[in-house]
Amino acid sequence: MPSRLFFDNLGAILTYAVVGTLWNAFTTGAALWGLQQAGLVAPRVQAGLLDFLLFGSLISAVDPVAVLAVFEEVHVNETLFIIVFGESLLNDAVTVVLYKVCNSFVEMGSANVQATDYLKGVASLFVVSLGGAAVGLVFAFLLALTTRFTKRVRIIEPLLVFLLAYAAYLTAEMASLSAILAVTMCGLGCKKYVEANISHKSRTAVKYTMKTLASCAETIIFMLLGISAVDSSKWAWDSGLVLGTLFFILFFRALGVVLQTWVLNQFRLVPLDKIDQVVMSYGGLRGAVAFALVILLDRTKIPAKDYFVATTIVVVFFTVIVQGLTIKPLVKWLKVKRSEHHKPTLNQELHEHTFDHILAAVEDVVGHHGYHYWRDRWEQFDKKYLSQLLMRRSAYRIRDQIWDVYYRLNIRDAISFVDQGGHVLSSTGLTLPSMPSRNSVAETSVTNLLRESGSGACLDLQVIDTVRSGRDREDAVMHHLLCGGLYKPRYRVGLLQELFKNVFSGSRGQIKLEGYKASCSRHFISEDAQERQDKEVFQQNMKRRLESFKPTKHNICLTKSKPRPRKAGRKKKDGMANTEATNGKPPRDLGFQDTAAVILTVESEEEEDSDSSETEKEDDEGIIFVARATSEVLQEGKVSGSLEVCPSPRIIPPSPTCAEKELPWKSGQGDLAVYVSSETTKIVPVDMQTGWNQSISSLESLASPPCTQAPPMTRLPPRSLVTEESQAPLNLPSDLRPSFAFPTSLAKAGRSHSESSADIPQQQELQPLMGHEDHTHLSPGTANSHWCIQFNRGGRL
Amino acid sequence: MGSCSSHAARIPDVDSIQRETGFSQASLLRLYHRFRALDRNKKGYLSRVDLQEIGALAVNPLGDRIIDSFFPDGSLQLDFPGFVRVLAHFRPVDVEDHGNRDPQEPEPLNSRMNKLRFAFQLYDLDRDGKISRHEMLQVLRLMVGVQVTEEQLESIADRTVQEADEDGDGAVSFLEFTKSLEKMNIEQKMSIRILK
């Protein structure tokens, strides 16, 4: 339910709910009594005025279930919907009070009713409604507070939501307060905080379980209704009563709506026009609440109960079936303003906020404490106290509506891109400025990261999960191949190499091979023909790349330096400078182990959400650009000249590229286009540069909403890589997924040690080792030692 | 009524103001009293300081810009007609006006276009008729919480401009601005009921 709309129209909703229901009840009851006096109702219906008033009160309540069901089909504009729906929700209090009051009056006997009783009745209306709302708010507070601490026990989150909401209902029932109001207020009050606190899986679970339960409950109620209709012992028919009731409820509802709207329009900014009024009066469907209440009547006190039951059944059937079925054609015929399903745009969100602020300011200037003033005050109070108390620290930090919309838009773009069969290496025409298909590869990692980190970003991951593109199939094939290869103690690299060459063409295959080799290096027991082959392969790769790629002027920056400067909020115009400045190691040294390492480092910092977001970012970098990195690094000219830093040519430098990725397109868009097109086999059209850049940068920022408070990290990625590798030798199969996924898998491995403060000492201890390894692992000549070293390290750890 | 009109008569040029802005007598009176209350030194006009002293405006992210909008063209004094003219933008739209409005007359100050123009001017500080990316970024900086980093803000600004920009000039013109907001109920979002 859109809470903003609800509160914006609260005045109208309350008017209809309270005044409208009272009006309906009294007029219907009185009219039926008049009908009886006029003799149209058979005298066997023994009912007095109070009985009719009681009947009027229970038949006049608009039912939220029926309204929701029908209006969801019809798609009228939001204002109309929220008014009718809100009315149906809030009139429960009035109905309950009226019912109870009339019931007790009937029991007392109409002669004994005194004036004070009427007053007590009115007072009880306030007590019931406000009490119910208060109970709901208390439970909302409790729910928000408890979900704040459920980070480690995610599985109980849906349970908490259900139980506490139900507890609110039961408590209100116990105290004879309005239970529907309690549940409504509980939901309205806790929505914002609970949504931020609980994980995506829990959110999905809650949403769909509730829908299922609601469906079940509705079905059962209407089944009961139907069975009661058939079971003639439960009711007695009286035509006058039935027809009279039908006519009166329609007539008086229409009349009530017209009158109230006329009054309301004096005060509303946007008046409700005639067509809206028609829809409102026609949409007043009665439902299960009326039936339940009538069944509960005591036959001894109210002898006419059976007639009432029959009437109620007919009324409910009529409104739901006839009115419900015909409202859609009516809406179309009357050309009611329909709700426009527009996608949320960043512009609208931003401008809406702007207008809110403007209006609040103007209200201040005028000196009028109007709606916006109070709303503004409430928002400030909420931001300062409530959100801090009730929202998880991590969620609180990244809480910003504009950011949320932006984030969602990016995700949506990414999803739709992949849905279009987006494939990093195959799609030649991007129609959206969206993120590359790293999404499909990353889905396992990014989404998992998001889930694990419990970020406040609202991401409907189930959508991502179902995205299957060609990429995934390839990944699956690759995975199977690798898995098959892995379990052989001494597999034949040559065979796999051939396989890879055949299955995957181009640098991608090589990269995968490299990644694969890197990952399964720990299985190598001896340097033998395998390493010789590796050497050859590497040399071939290098040569090929040198020939094929044009040099670009991208800076290679250390990925590891990336998070730190980010957190410092520095503008990284020159990645190179950053790298050099922040990382003593020469950039070249980063192999793609480093990339993975970077990812892992960040991964392991998951205790802070910012870190996990960094991880995502890293993931993105690594995943997207791993392949590219290789060639990029090669053509950077490092091959030609600056190899002094690292003895080996940049054969496998995905990580530098990864880091580089984020900076280059910040520095220059032109580079990016060339970069991309030369890099992967995917060609990004020049006109997509802007969008591409934005997507990339958004990707990065996507991954790291809350950066400012993250403590500076000082660990170097390579160490963590080692740690990761050593700590997760069994993760090899996943590691061996295509190199695009390599960082991902490593990231996943990294994820497995979320509280990885323990990693830090390990990593630092391994630093010298890594450094040593860095210098060697990239050279084809020293590939043997490279693998050896890795393996050794693994063994040691 | 007698008392009302005599009070209203104290307001200089009340008739022309009323014609220009469309406020009712009661509203004009209330605004006049407010004007006088804000004018602490009884200067007869308002200066920026007077408006800045409104406490709630200080915590409003757009407070300064709104104050500036009251002082168009760099003037330092705000007289009552100017005060009312700006506030007239926030008058609720009169549905009945549209039927019998004389097309020759200029649009009333509280028409949809004028409301949007007012909002547009809040963004477009250099008055070049376009909201550049830089200006969008400035507004975002004001409005978005501190926890969003600079780079993220830039991405958001980029995307916002890109969403609205149709002719690809990297800035949002007034027409593009209105187009991006065509689905929004401006009449409701930019109106204050009390100013009827």
Automatic annotation (TrEMBL), chain A:
<feature type="domain" description="Cation/H+ exchanger transmembrane">
    <location>
        <begin position="1"/>
        <end position="333"/>
    </location>
</feature>
<comment type="similarity">
    <text>Belongs to the monovalent cation:proton antiporter 1 (CPA1) transporter (TC 2.A.36) family.</text>
</comment>
<dbReference type="GO" id="GO:0098719">
    <property type="term" value="P:sodium ion import across plasma membrane"/>
</dbReference>
<dbReference type="GO" id="GO:0015385">
    <property type="term" value="F:sodium:proton antiporter activity"/>
</dbReference>
<feature type="region of interest" description="Disordered">
    <location>
        <begin position="557"/>
        <end position="623"/>
    </location>
</feature>
<dbReference type="GO" id="GO:0005886">
    <property type="term" value="C:plasma membrane"/>
</dbReference>
<keyword id="KW-1133">Transmembrane helix</keyword>
<dbReference type="GO" id="GO:0055038">
    <property type="term" value="C:recycling endosome membrane"/>
</dbReference>
<dbReference type="InterPro" id="IPR006153">
    <property type="entry name" value="Cation/H_exchanger_TM"/>
</dbReference>
<feature type="transmembrane region" description="Helical">
    <location>
        <begin position="166"/>
        <end position="188"/>
    </location>
</feature>
<feature type="transmembrane region" description="Helical">
    <location>
        <begin position="12"/>
        <end position="35"/>
    </location>
</feature>
<protein>
    <recommendedName>
        <fullName>Sodium/hydrogen exchanger</fullName>
    </recommendedName>
</protein>
<keyword id="KW-0406">Ion transport</keyword>
<dbReference type="Pfam" id="PF00999">
    <property type="entry name" value="Na_H_Exchanger"/>
</dbReference>
<dbReference type="InterPro" id="IPR018422">
    <property type="entry name" value="Cation/H_exchanger_CPA1"/>
</dbReference>
<keyword id="KW-0050">Antiport</keyword>
<dbReference type="GO" id="GO:0015386">
    <property type="term" value="F:potassium:proton antiporter activity"/>
</dbReference>
<feature type="compositionally biased region" description="Basic residues">
    <location>
        <begin position="561"/>
        <end position="573"/>
    </location>
</feature>
<keyword id="KW-0915">Sodium</keyword>
<feature type="transmembrane region" description="Helical">
    <location>
        <begin position="275"/>
        <end position="295"/>
    </location>
</feature>
<keyword id="KW-0739">Sodium transport</keyword>
<feature type="transmembrane region" description="Helical">
    <location>
        <begin position="80"/>
        <end position="101"/>
    </location>
</feature>
Automatic annotation (TrEMBL), chain B:
<feature type="domain" description="EF-hand">
    <location>
        <begin position="111"/>
        <end position="146"/>
    </location>
</feature>
<keyword id="KW-0677">Repeat</keyword>
<keyword id="KW-0449">Lipoprotein</keyword>
<dbReference type="Pfam" id="PF13202">
    <property type="entry name" value="EF-hand_5"/>
</dbReference>
<keyword id="KW-0479">Metal-binding</keyword>
<dbReference type="InterPro" id="IPR011992">
    <property type="entry name" value="EF-hand-dom_pair"/>
</dbReference>
<feature type="domain" description="EF-hand">
    <location>
        <begin position="26"/>
        <end position="61"/>
    </location>
</feature>
<keyword id="KW-0597">Phosphoprotein</keyword>
<keyword id="KW-1003">Cell membrane</keyword>
<dbReference type="GO" id="GO:0005509">
    <property type="term" value="F:calcium ion binding"/>
</dbReference>
<dbReference type="GO" id="GO:0005886">
    <property type="term" value="C:plasma membrane"/>
</dbReference>
<dbReference type="GO" id="GO:0005634">
    <property type="term" value="C:nucleus"/>
</dbReference>
<protein>
    <submittedName>
        <fullName>Calcineurin B homologous protein 2</fullName>
    </submittedName>
</protein>
<dbReference type="Pfam" id="PF13499">
    <property type="entry name" value="EF-hand_7"/>
</dbReference>
<keyword id="KW-0963">Cytoplasm</keyword>
<keyword id="KW-0813">Transport</keyword>
<feature type="domain" description="EF-hand">
    <location>
        <begin position="152"/>
        <end position="187"/>
    </location>
</feature>
<dbReference type="GO" id="GO:0005737">
    <property type="term" value="C:cytoplasm"/>
</dbReference>
<keyword id="KW-0519">Myristate</keyword>
<keyword id="KW-0539">Nucleus</keyword>
<comment type="similarity">
    <text>Belongs to the calcineurin regulatory subunit family. CHP subfamily.</text>
</comment>
<dbReference type="InterPro" id="IPR051875">
    <property type="entry name" value="Calcineurin_B_homologous"/>
</dbReference>
